[in-house]
């Protein structure tokens, strides 16, 4: 079996937006290096100053070097029928596969990661970065951060790993059924093996235990593994895969519960690699307050998380429609509800539906009674129900509770729990913050599966 030990230098951290500036390929026969290929490459883009400082490769140095397209056929012939070996193999492989594809070549070959193999075959070292590992193993590493020097050290490391492999770990990693080399370099296989096929939420954590990504899944193991398949050259994937050291998870009985937990946890922890749900915010709320004259006033305004809203809305129109209904039903003043602004008296006073609070003709005490009735109507018209579904085991069922238009919480209850006893039901559920995103998911699910809904 022949191995192609590869190292590259690049203009940046992800393949789709960066070029290769240098490549070294050492062909290894399992005992020693038998041939060597190395060349500078003109990336046909500017080399950032920090990259030049790290590698010593400047724009001037590569100005007369061949482009990748010019050497693509040689590189493909070196790699396509060998085992592709690199320290953090998915980084090098993603670059070379991407740039070969741009030149018309499709690279399909087996891979070995010397970071992952070192962790298994040479356990106990404090760091598995190439520089520190070479120091620990007394491997000579010349020209650090240059393709030739790093590839030579990786080839020497491969020789040690092949010698240390007395239980055929490398052979198992290369078998078709193994997904070992697709995993991030710092993630132990045991972290994936422990994942169940149940719905739930998973947490990718870095070396310090900080959550860097949260996701939900119908099947935890399948979804997590899907993150590591393929060789997506994009920025986000390349940036976070190298930081994944652990996976934690929480099983949920249903996909809806997983969706709610995911949304809640993203808002709580704000992982750096989650984006879409971070941007969700409630837009408008219906608020009540007393003005300086003692009148209780209702109004729709932009949602403020530090002030309790009577109800929240996605659109200003939805809020005004509900407010106008309350005005009509309880003879409230449109001016005091901020529907009309530039008038001494509201049109309702002229038509007889407003008793004159806008002109101080009706006392605050009398007017506030009707406002309180309006608020009571609002709370009674908001839905209260439970969604009952399967549990994690046959001995339980899942429950989501909506109370007066707000999501209260969710959890697992016995089949003998009295759903119509709110206090008993709440004691069995975990409270969660309510927002329009979560409530919309619950209401849509209740509409799609009315048989699961129990009105309270």
TrEMBL record:
Gene Ontology BP, a term: nucleotide-excision repair
SUPFAM superfamilies for this protein: GIY-YIG endonuclease, Ribonuclease H-like
Function: DNA polymerase III is a complex, multichain enzyme responsible for most of the replicative synthesis in bacteria. The epsilon subunit contain the editing function and is a proofreading 3'-5' exonuclease.
The protein's name: DNA polymerase III subunit epsilon
Superkingdom of origin: Bacteria
CDD domains (alphabetical): DEDDh, GIY-YIG_UvrC_Cho
GO molecular function: 3'-5' exonuclease activity; DNA binding; DNA-directed DNA polymerase activity
Self-association state and partner proteins as the record states: DNA polymerase III contains a core (composed of alpha, epsilon and theta chains) that associates with a tau subunit. This core dimerizes to form the POLIII' complex. PolIII' associates with the gamma complex (composed of gamma, delta, delta', psi and chi chains) and with the beta chain to form the complete DNA polymerase III complex.
Residues that span the membrane, as ranges: none
Biological source species: Pedobacter psychroterrae
Sequence ranges assigned to domain GIY-YIG in this UniProt record: 197-275
Gene Ontology annotations for the cellular component aspect, listed alphabetically: cytosol
């Amino acid at each position: 079996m022949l191995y192609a030990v590869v190292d590259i230098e690049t203009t940046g951290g992800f393949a789709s937006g960066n070029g290769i500036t240098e490549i070294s390929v050492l062909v290894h026969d399992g005992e020693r290096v038998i041939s060597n290929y190395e060349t500078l490459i003109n990336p046909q883009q500017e080399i950032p100053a920090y990259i030049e400082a790290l590698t010593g490769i400047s724009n001037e140095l590569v100005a007369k070097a061949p482009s990748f397209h010019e050497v693509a056929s040689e590189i493909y012939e070196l790699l396509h029928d060998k085992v592709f070996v690199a320290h953090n193999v998915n980084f090098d492989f993603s670059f070379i596969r991407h740039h070969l594809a741009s030149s018309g070549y499709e690279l399909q070959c087996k891979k070995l990661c010397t970071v992952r193999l070192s962790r298994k075959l040479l356990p106990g070292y404090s760091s598995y970065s190439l520089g520190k590992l070479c120091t620990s193993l007394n491997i000579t590493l010349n020209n650090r951060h240059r393709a030739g020097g790093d590839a030579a050290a990786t080839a020497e490391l491969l020789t040690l790993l092949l010698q240390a492999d007395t239980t055929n770990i490398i052979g198992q990693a290369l078998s078709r059924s193994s997904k070992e080399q697709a995993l991030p370099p710092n993630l132990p296989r045991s972290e994936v093996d422990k994942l169940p096929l149940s719905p739930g939420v998973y947490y990718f954590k870095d070396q310090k235990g900080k959550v860097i990504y949260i996701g939900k899944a119908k099947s935890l193991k399948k979804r997590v593994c899907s993150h590591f398949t393929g060789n997506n050259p994009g920025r986000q994937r390349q940036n976070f895969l190298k930081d994944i050291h652990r996976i934690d998870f929480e099983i949920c009985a249903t996909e809806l519960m997983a969706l709610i937990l995911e949304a809640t946890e993203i808002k709580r922890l704000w992982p750096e690699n989650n984006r879409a749900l971070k941007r969700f915010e409630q837009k408008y709320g219906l608020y009540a307050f007393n003005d300086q004259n003692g009148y209780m006033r209702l109004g729709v305004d932009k949602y403020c998380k530090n002030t309790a809203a009577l109800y929240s809305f996605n659109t200003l129109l939805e809020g005004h429609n509900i407010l106008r209904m309350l005005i009509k039903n309880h003879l409230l003043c449109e001016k005091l509800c901020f529907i009309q602004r530039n008038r001494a008296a509201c049109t309702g006073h002229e038509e007889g539906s407003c008793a004159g609070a806008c002109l101080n003709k009706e006392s605050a005490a009398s007017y506030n009674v009707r406002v309180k009735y309006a608020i009571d109507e609002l709370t009674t018209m908001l839905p209260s129900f439970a969604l009952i579904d399967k549990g994690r085991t046959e001995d339980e069922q899942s429950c989501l509770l909506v109370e007066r238009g707000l999501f209260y919480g969710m959890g697992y209850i016995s089949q003998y729990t009295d759903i119509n006893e709110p206090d008993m039901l709440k004691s069995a559920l975990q409270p969660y913050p309510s927002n329009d995103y979560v409530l919309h998911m619950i209401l849509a699910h209740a509409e799609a599966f009315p048989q699961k809904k129990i009105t309270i």
